[in-house]
Design a protein that fits this description.
- This protein has 138 residues and is mostly helical.
- It has one domain.
- It has helices spanning 3-21, 54-58, 61-72, 78-90, 99-102, 106-115, 119-137; strands at 32-34, 39-41.
- The chain has a two-stranded antiparallel ribbon.
- The N and C termini lie far apart (36 Å).
- 19% of the residues are buried.
Amino acid sequence: MADDDLDQIEASLQAVAARLNSCHPDPNATVKYDLLANALIWPDELPAPQQPGEFSKLSMVRVLQRHRTTVILGTPSLELEKYWLLGKRLFPQWCGFQQDRITTSDERVALYWKHNPWKQRDEAENEWKAMQDRLSES
């Protein structure tokens, strides 16, 4: 993502930072897969929009949720890490940063791959890369 993207995301997150910082974790919230974010999310992580245009600003949290998912999967995204750090600076009390939501578990990994529509594409890419590696070795 380009610096322009970072500026746009930062402006959006700054506009909703106070609301995100005041999100309280729901002890009954359960993790789900979100197709738009391609991420694992908890339903208590986003407050309902209260003003026109606020939905698009709140939806920028998907970038953070995606990064967290890459951490859960054991393949942290260096590209998305800057947005995660930005979020931690702007709204450090956000319930999405809780350690128990960042922790890897077999159940979370299985949930992600069960619902991820990109799984077959990813598997095909991995097979292609492995084949290219074998060909370059010979």
